[in-house]
C-alpha cells in the first residue's frame, strides 16, 4: 500500500515527515509529497505511521493508476 498527501487538506505542518521510517516524505516549495518508490505503507496500530500522525486526515491510500504514474516520475 502506498500513500499520497491530499494537498487540499494538508496544513503543511510537517508532522508526517519525521514519522516516516523510509524517508519517503519530503517537502517541496508548495507541499509535502510522498515518494511512492520509497513508501511501503508501514503500519503501526492498524495505520501507517504518517497517516496516524496527521492531524488533518490528509494522507490517503493511492489508487493503482495514480501510483503507476507517480512511480514513473521517481524512477
TrEMBL record:
Keyword Methyltransferase: no
Span of domain 4Fe-4S ferredoxin-type: 1-30, 31-64
Annotated keywords: Iron, Iron-sulfur, Metal-binding
Keyword Metal-binding: yes
Alphabetical list of Pfam families matching this protein: Fer4
Highest taxon in the source lineage: Bacteria
Protein name per its UniProtKB record: 4Fe-4S ferredoxin
Record organism: Candidatus Methylobacter oryzae
Classification of source organism: Bacteria, Pseudomonadati, Pseudomonadota, Gammaproteobacteria, Methylococcales
